[in-house]
Design goal:
The structure is a single chain. With 164 residues, this protein is an all-alpha fold. It contains eight helices and no strands. It has one domain. Helices cover 75% and strands 0% of the residues.
């Protein structure tokens, strides 16, 4: 673990994020915008799958998903910048491992949804209900996103003392 931390601290990204006064706050802002895009678009779709917004076809709401993908990319890139800047504050923090765990859950749920459920969802009309499995997948998605954000927020409260 120490070797990985030392390597990350030696990268140009680490130097950039720690040297330039506005790099971290700008990255935080971009990270937040990414979360808003991700949660706003995916949650809207998930809630429609759960039955909220009957009268709107799920495929119409699904058009928002690319904004969620953009949001995920922004959050992932800025998240990597944060880890590069202060890796010890992440690798020795239980909240980081919780966040990573729920990111994996969210990713596996998305793979499951698109490989097993989406074919059914895209055929639903505006007043049709989704299957029970689709609703379970939507609940898992919503839970994982909220858990990711909670763990991310907890990162700042449970900062381990580092050697720096």
């Amino acid at each position: 673990m120490e070797a990985l931390i030392e390597w990350l601290l030696a990268t140009q990204l680490s130097d950039f994020i720690l040297t330039y006064r506005w790099a971290w706050p700008i990255a935080e802002t971009v990270h937040f915008v990414g979360l808003v895009l991700l949660f706003g678009s995916i949650a809207t779709f998930d809630f429609r799958v759960l039955g909220v917004g009957m009268g709107i076809a799920p495929r119409a709401v699904h058009r928002l998903v690319p904004f969620g993908v953009l949001g995920f990319c922004l959050s992932a890139l800025t998240g990597f910048a944060f880890i590069s800047g202060t890796p010890d504050q992440y690798f020795y923090n239980w909240a980081f491992y919780g966040k990573v765990t729920f990111l994996v859950v969210m990713g596996l749920n998305a793979i499951y949804f698109y490989s097993c459920i989406y074919a059914e969802i895209k055929t639903l009309g505006p007043y049709d209900s989704a299957s029970r499995l689709a609703k379970v997948s939507a609940c898992v998605s919503l839970f994982a996103m909220v858990a990711i954000m909670c763990c991310g927020r907890m990162l700042t409260f449970f900062r381990p003392p580092g050697p720096f």
